[in-house]
Amino acid sequence: MKTFDYRTADRSSAGLAPEAMFLAGGTNLVDLMKLGVATPDVLVDVTKLPLDGITERPDGGVRIGATVRNSDLAADPRIRRGFPVLSQALLAGASGQLRNMATTGGNLLQRTRCRYFMDATKPCNKHAPGTGCPAREGDHRNLAILGGSEACVATHPSDMAVALAALGAVVRVDGAAGERTVPVTDLHRLPGDTPQRDTVLEHGEMITAVDLPALPFATRSAYRKARDRASYAFAVGSVAAALDVDDGVVREVRLAFGAVAPKPWRATVAEEVLRGRPATEESFRAAADAELEAARPLRDNAYKIDLIRNLTAAVLTRLAGEAR
Amino acid sequence: MTATLPTAVGAPLARLEGPEKVTGTAKYAAEYRTGEVAYGWVVQSPVPRGRLNAVLADPAADTLAVLWHGNAPRLKSGDDPELDVLQSDRISYRGQAVALVVAGTLEAARRAAQELRLDITTEEHDALLRTDHPGLYTPERVNPAFPAETSSGDVDTALAAAAVAVDVTYRTPALHNNPMEPHATIARWQDGDLELHDSNQHPSGVAATVGALFGLPPERVHVITEHVGGGFGSKGTARPNAVLAALGAKVVGRPVKVVLPRQAMFSMVGHRTPTIQRIRLGAEPDGTLTAIDHQATEQTSRLFEFAEQTTVVTRHMYAAPNRRTGHRLARLDMPTPRWMRAPGEAPGMVGLECALDELAERLGIDPIELRVRNEPAVEPETGVPFTSRHYVECLRAGAERFGWAGRDPRPRQRRDGDWWIGTGMAGATYPTMAQPSTARVRALADGAFEVAIGATDLGTGARTILTQIAADALAVPVERIRIRIGDSTLPKASVAGGSSGSASWGWAVTGACRELRASGRDEATFDSSELVQHQEKDGRHAFGAHFAEVRVDAVTGEVRVSRLFGMFAAGRILNPRTARSQLLGGMIMGMGMALHEEGVLDPAMGEWVNHDLAEYHIPVHADVEDIDAAWLDEHDDRINPMGSKGIGEIGIVGSPAAIVNAVWHATGIRVRDLPVRLDKLLSLLP
Ligand SMILES: Cc1cc2nc3c(=O)[nH]c(=O)nc-3n(C[C@H](O)[C@H](O)[C@H](O)COP(=O)(O)OP(=O)(O)OC[C@H]3O[C@@H](n4cnc5c(N)ncnc54)[C@H](O)[C@@H]3O)c2cc1C
Ligand code: SF4
């Protein structure tokens, strides 16, 4: 682990020196530093900034501060009531201890769990551009079927981000060039031939908050995650959904997939297919299939297609049942 | 001393060191303060095969030493080439120790290690086990000293003539020892003598081995192993951490601490070999077995031959006139496999017990009934009678407790919401062993007795049980026993392995206590070597039966074990509390083997790429729902003075097969390639 300086951030717009990084809960960054995959010179701790509030917005939405701990966010009554999918996604992730440390901003910006990425002694286009992608031929059982490229097929591992994508959340960012907003669905980049860049954020841009826009039907929303053991495992496939049904017909739907792409995958094609359709299991399966037409599985991850289709149908069918 | 004292053996005495452990005051190897300790960080090879030409360190780095084969002190080579660390330029596997960085702080050591430049000439490697591997050979013996092959009757003819036959191949993956406490050593030299605080299963063995490498007699090496946070076999002999720490300390003239990071546990401490097992069974329509053939293909390293005894278990489970077992090994450019809880039995009983389940299905016979019909009168291959065998009783009593009666034998019949539900069973067995050990007992002035033996307590309760045994042998309450273990200077004890600790050490302790009473003196020492060596080796086993109920999610293919029950006949249970914990722990580890654990090999990298506990899954609390173990009151006075059989390993033997068989019953799918994960079920589910 490289020697580094530590300081606390005093302002959100202070920017960062070239080799500095923000530190939040540290549950991902510090691991990567120990492994020699992240090598910052300076850590700028954001957790002392006043960014740990959850506040209601006049329009019925909610603003979540960047340093709100995952545990606190999952337990917040407004979230549990108005956006259950988010609370469920958070509680499906990691462990109690990790959620007590992990923050909203850090969770969004956590890096892939690709096993080559997390090993500095291995080639990997993401941690060492141009060295190749051993995952394509090697271990990719839990890597991308959607949005990957020749250069990289990493998946974004967050559960929370999948719920935020479904909810149409907007990330508030502050940096040298001032404040701006980025929809969660646009925050992470697809790898193309520059997989080393995970997101559209400029170096030194800090996440200050995430806004959940008002979404009344999100009271009927859910998250379901499939994993390799009962708890404390990353998703191998997950679905976040909110459903508004009127007289047996889908009026509005929000759908996102996890553990299948380099970003939380908002299933816009499936949503489009579903609007105005009967809220039946057949429609839900057909919609998932429409979205999954773009899937390009590798040798060992085609099972994710079946998994996501089944999860989508199961989650939406249950939500439709609750609507009746 | 009164004759009416209730016996201590058999009582559920709580672990003596429990309060120390839960309050954090129990010291593990790396936690001792030993003068001005320096920190060693092990540099591991980033390639699976090649030659290390040079190690280039930044001269400005804040280190005390950077050791590699170019400058490390010479060792006297012993019989474990993996301990000849930093002695040669040869790289035999990825993850092998190629250098040691010693610095004043852990951070500085690790930093310098990461920045070290290794000049390596890489060579072609071969990391993939396969049944058509050109280098497959039959080893002379399999662990520890069994013949690699046995054969009697005419298996091929019997199989060809069998009314019903199965011919199946089961695969188990590489499995990795992950005791909570990683391998750790603090080494200190003083006046040419070596002191090691080391986490291991055999202090006197470590003293002898490490001593020999440095040209020291065992008595000049003092190994202290007071508490050990698990080992499962991976700490049965000295591991490279002990030698590296001693080398480092010798060079820098300060105590050196080496703690393996979790990632290194996947290469440097031994793992369970992957196995490919072909099992062929032939039977009469009534279920009588006419032939059993069990052949295992497995791997070892270029450095060292370790041959897992995977099919040995088949030699004594069931009767059949025609039988054959064998093992084939490939030497790969991979780390050396070694012992992991029930080596041989654990993987071997996956193959055998799953194949029997398949046979039961073909025959239309209840799987318990099938086993009962093939119960042997004597050990089938040696003809030696069993000292005690209550397998059928375990099957019957276990079935009763579990509620097996009335089970619909057809698969895929029970559904609860999204869940397919099924039940399965499998047999269990583990050999009953004892090894020579010596114990000493002293009457103290205050009326207490000091009982001393160089045994180790891996968290199993050994310290507690030996106290109970001594109390009974001296006919005093347990409060009057002061037990001393975990130190190589104490009377020599055998390794805490092979489920033989309680029997071996208890035997010596009993002997010493009896001798003390008989002699009337205030000190007695007893060496069990004579008695142990004259024992018959065959016909001594514990038995058991596992029962599982699983649920398989029709939406995701996720498997959950809703019930797991084991019934055992393992001689006299010395302490029901610690025994239960051993049995349940084994069963849970078996659940991991069935459903979770797998070293994921990247053949191109020559490495298991999921080398940490976030990616190498073991069961967590949420995976363990309703679990229980029970035992029959078995008396066997022919095995040792306590009448006890080992219980540390039998829990993992058979529980994986029971779960895999239950998955079939739930879904109709035979997954023959462990672990049973959702991606192997999903596309086949209805
Ligand atoms: C064993 C294990 C299991 C896990 N299981 C799961 C799981 O099942 N599901 C799941 O979703 N997650 C899981 N996680 C991941 C966990 O959720 C993340 O590590 C955590 O959310 C990261 O948050 P943090 O605050 O600790 O981030 P840090 O580690 O502090 O930071 C992560 C990244 O975000 C950057 N950053 C942090 N805050 C800001 C900010 N405000 N502005 C700009 N940049 C910022 C940092 O520079 C860094 O690059 C697991 C982690 C572990 C170790
Ligand atoms: S998938 Fe991406 S992160 Fe993984 S090895 Fe390839 S380039 Fe690296």
UniProtKB/TrEMBL annotation, chain A:
It comes from the Bacteria. Coiled coil: none annotated. Keywords: Oxidoreductase. The keyword Oxidoreductase applies. Transmembrane segments: none annotated. Residues 1-217 form the FAD-binding PCMH-type domain. This is Oxidoreductase.
Automatic annotation (TrEMBL), chain B:
GO terms for molecular function: iron ion binding; oxidoreductase activity. Residues 23-124 form the Aldehyde oxidase/xanthine dehydrogenase a/b hammerhead domain. InterPro entries: Ald_Oxase/Xan_DH_a/b, Ald_Oxase/Xan_DH_a/b_sf, Ald_Oxase/xanthine_DH-like, AldOxase/xan_DH_MoCoBD1, AldOxase/xan_DH_MoCoBD2, AldOxase/xan_DH_Mopterin-bd_sf. The keyword Secreted does not apply. Signal peptide: none annotated. Transmembrane segments: none annotated. The keyword Oxidoreductase applies. Keywords: Molybdenum, Oxidoreductase. This is Xanthine dehydrogenase. It comes from Paractinoplanes ferrugineus.
